[in-house]
Amino acid sequence: MDARSNWVFEQVLDSAREACAWNRWPSPARAGTRAAAGIAALALALFAPVLRAPVQAQTADEPYKGKQIRIVVGTAAGQDYDSWARLIGRHLPRFLPGNPTFIVENMPGAGHILATNFLFNLAPRDGTVIGMVSRNMTEAAIMKLPNVRFDPGKFNWIGSPELNHRVLFVNVASGFDKVSDLYERELIVGTPGGAQGVSAAPILLKNLLHMRLKIIQGYHSPGDVILAMARREVDGIVQSVGAPEGARRQWIESGQMRVLFSMEHERVAGLDAPTIFEFIKTQEQRQVMAFLSSSMELGRPLMAPPGVPAERVARLRGAFDATVKDPAFLQEAAAMGLEVMPQSGERIAARVAAVMATPKDTVDEAQRASASE
Fold it and tell me: Are residues 339 and 190 in the same domain?
């Protein structure tokens, strides 16, 4: 007990003794231990709130003081989600009371399903573990893909640092110059497999739009597919295009690759390429493509497990919102070739809810079109 606390305790104890004298009670020395216990209990009852108050205030004001926060990422180190998570982890602690430390834990497997299952079922629910997993996890849950054990609507969404665009890259050396070529001869496309968009989209394009694609699955990561393209093992990949200053735009500018089309409703500024929706022939195809393209609107979502106290979710969201506006964060992102286009946790949650409301017949058709042969 420090000097101030000891002084307060003595004052309470003196007050208890005076109360005994005023009521003509016998002093503790004469009445024995029973009366002494009564005085002590009275003193502790009066003093306990004083003792507890500083501790409670510290817990409420700085729940992260002295803590370590883990960011679980559904990819191996060096991939896009990992790069964003590490960038956020270097800056977000400055905006959380208590200035906790952050570490990134990579948990690749089953196209982000392993990490998402962990966050939903096993991660602590005290705000010390958050995650960044594929934007396609909402679709994976709605379509009831194997091994999915999570409900996207129950996650506490914190925000997203970017809004990207998915495109079909082809090797210039392949001779594919326009979308119509994909209906005339076969393009070999590489994918890692799993529930990622980079794997699901080519299957959808083949089954739903009847493009002549030969799909080679099983690469460890999208980066390995890019290496395979350099070796001419494959000639195409569906991948996000990245910022204008990023490496993937440089693939185009260098003449190595071209973009045949994007997979959103609107054309992408700065890309001389149509959108896939310009080649859709039926309303059913349009609805399925709209459902499977909706994931791009989630960006690179950051979330906390279900059951995290609302007050801590609010702190995490506030810290994220402050981070993505911070000059130091923006400067480092630009140096990494990353384009910051943030979305709040509330907006991500609303987008997830909208996707979860997709009509069942559209989901059923998407399941059929996305099934591997």
Answer: no
Q: What is the percentage of the chain residues whose pLDDT exceeds 70?
A: 81
CATH number of the domain bearing residue 260: 3.40.190.10
- Predicted confidence band of residue 193 (pLDDT cuts 50, 70, 90): confident
Task: Give the list of residues 6+ apart from residue 138 with CB closer than 8 angstroms, or none.
Answer: 152, 295, 298, 352, 355, 356
pLDDT tens digits, one per residue of 343-368: 999 999 999 999 999 999 999 999 99
Is the model's pLDDT at 29 over the cut of 50? no
Nearest partner of 322 among 31, 121, 92, 148, judged by Cα: 92
318 and 283 in one domain? no
Tell me how far apart the alpha carbons of residues 70 and 130 are, in angstroms, rounded to a whole number: 6
**Residue 39: domain span:** 3-55
* Neighbouring C-beta atoms of residue 189, cutoff 10 Å: 28
The model carries a pTM of 0.77
**Residues making up the chain, counted from first to last:** 373
In a shared domain, residues 306 and 265: no
**Overall domain count for the chain:** 3
Residue 196 located in a structural domain = yes
